[in-house]
Amino acid sequence: MIKPVELKSPKILNSNMTSEEKELIELFITCAIQKRINRAKAKYFDGILSGIAKTLKILGRKDINDLIAIEYLYHDELN
Predict the structure, then answer these.
(1) Residue 21: how many other CB atoms lie within 10 Å
(2) Angle between helix 42-59 and 62-72 (nearest 10)
(3) DSSP 8-state class, residue 17
(4) For residue 1, is pLDDT > 90?
(5) Model-level pTM?
(6) 11, 28, 30, 72: which sits with the fewest CB atoms below 10 Å from its CB?
(7) For residues 12 and 15, what is the distance between their CA atoms, to the nearest angstrom?
(8) What are the CA-CA distances from residue 71 to residues 32, 39, 56, 76 (Å)?
């Protein structure tokens, strides 16, 4: 089992987002890191990332997409 990353961005940690919204961001960041670390399974993680991104777009949740971009900056594995 892959351990989800911990959120580090103060903007997310101090927000009034639901636990489900925060969990979605954790999942996205975890998959992005695993895609880079585990090249053999990159296509599977890419599928999850694409699914989350498309769902957020359909739901009109640009705010969560923006927060994901902010959270990226707090994880050395993604920079």
Answers:
(1) 16
(2) 140
(3) -
(4) no
(5) 0.92
(6) 11
(7) 5
(8) 11, 22, 16, 11
Q: Give domain limits for the chain.
A: 20-78
How many beta carbons lie within 10 A of that of residue 7, not counting itself? 20
For residues 1 and 8, what is the distance between their CA atoms, to the nearest angstrom? 21
Token pair recorded at residue 14: 């101090």
Q: What is the DSSP string of 26-79?
A: HHHHHHHHHHHH-GGGHHHHHHHHHHHHHHHHHHT-HHHHHHHHHHHTT-GGG-
Tokens 């992005």 sit at which residue? 32
Tens of pLDDT, residue by residue over 10-54, are 999 999 999 999 999 999 999 999 999 999 999 999 999 999 999
